[in-house]
Design goal:
- The termini are far apart.
- The protein is of the alpha+beta class.
- It contains eight helices and nine strands.
- The protein has a five-stranded antiparallel β-sheet with strand order 1-2-3-5-4, covered by helices on one side.
- 34% of the residues lie in helices and 17% in strands.
- Bound molecules: 2',3'- cyclic AMP (ACK).
- The site of 2',3'- cyclic AMP (ACK) has 14 residues, from strand 1 and strand 5.
Length: 305
């Protein structure tokens, strides 16, 4: 192991305006768990100018995390301080001053990840059970709305020159009012129990969301985020299916280089599929911008009204 936690690195004093008293935060159940970190549901009293008690998500390291993981949490904390957009997850506060492990307090998304919502909505459609908790089948209009919201959030991050590197349905959260919130961005991230990541030495890579230039040369830009957005659209259309079914991750790059792309799902219109396909142009500069994509989805929504 590298340097132990608690030594070497510190959350800076400039972060003081985010500091939240630990005794005003009550932790509840685990929402998600990774190798190094976990996300818990919590209740914060008088946080971020909000009156009363607010349900929050609390991100923290697990025991045994090392300095690399500590730095990853710190970098996420710093990035989150810079962003403010309705379609990007918000930081509410942090507990960094106590001797205990640092906690990031983040906006709670009541429907969890978009991927789990999509998969849950399938079951509801099949079983015809009640729409309790506001979970309802995802129709074309909702799908287009989700895609449009994600484009707006990603356009915002692009303008800040932030590259996500892991845009996928599992990393978009769905908040109250079915609002998509982009999350888990930054240089390093934990991987929350998902077999979408191919284990390569110590870091795991989401091969099936990666653009050819990222697979070949580790090049990540907003244009590789656009490629991943195309795969995310495919996840939306298939209600959370795993991309490139039956294809081994190690064969994907050469297959893409032959020009192979996922075909149009049966329930997808030609109009939507043609937009998705532009995201998968081999040449990064031939891919559209998130701004353009947002406008396209807005148009498609108008046609579906
Ligand atoms: O699909 P889920 O239930 O929603 O499983 C994942 C898990 O934690 C690992 O990321 C959930 N999660 C993460 N951040 C939040 C949040 N801010 N609000 C609600 N759930 C969250 C996510």
């Amino acid at each position: 192991p590298l340097m132990p936690l608690q030594t070497g690195f510190k959350f800076e004093s400039g972060d003081a305006k985010w500091e939240f008293p630990r005794d005003q935060l009550r932790l509840d159940t685990v929402l998600g768990e990774g190798e190094f970190g976990q996300v818990l549901k919590g209740y914060a009293t008088h946080i971020a100018g909000l009156p009363g008690v607010t349900t929050v998500a609390v991100k923290m390291l697990k025991k045994g995390a090392n300095s690399v993981e500590y730095m990853a949490l710190l970098s996420e904390f710093q990035l989150l301080q810079e962003v403010s957009h309705p379609n990007v997850i918000k930081l509410l506060g942090a507990c960094t001053l106590s001797s205990e492990a640092p906690l990031l307090i983040i906006e709670y998304a009541r429907y969890g990840s978009l991927r789990s919502y999509l998969r849950l909505s399938r079951k509801i459609e099949c079983a015809g059970v009640d729409f309790s908790d506001g979970v309802e089948p995802v129709n074309v209009k909702m799908m287009l709305t989700f895609a449009w919201q994600i484009c707006k959030g990603m356009n915002y991050l692009t303008e800040l020159k932030l590259v996500h590197r892991d845009l996928a349905a599992r990393n978009v959260l769905l908040a109250d009012g079915k609002i998509c919130k982009i999350s888990d961005f930054g240089l390093t991230r934990d991987v929350y129990e998902d077999d979408a990541y191919l284990k390569r030495s110590r870091d795991r890579v989401p091969v099936k969301w990666m653009a050819p230039e990222s697979l070949a040369d580790h090049v990540y830009t907003s244009k590789s985020d656009v490629w991943a957005f195309g795969v995310l659209c495919w996840e939306l259309i298939t209600l959370g299916a795993s991309p490139y079914p039956g294809i081994a991750p190690q064969n994907l790059w050469s297959l893409l280089k032959t020009g192979y792309r996922m075909e149009r799902p049966e329930n997808c219109s030609e109009a939507v599929y043609s937009v998705v396909r532009t995201c998968w142009a081999d040449e990064p500069n031939a891919r559209p911008s998130f701004k353009y994509l947002a406008a396209e989805f807005e148009k498609l929504l108008g046609n579906n009204a």
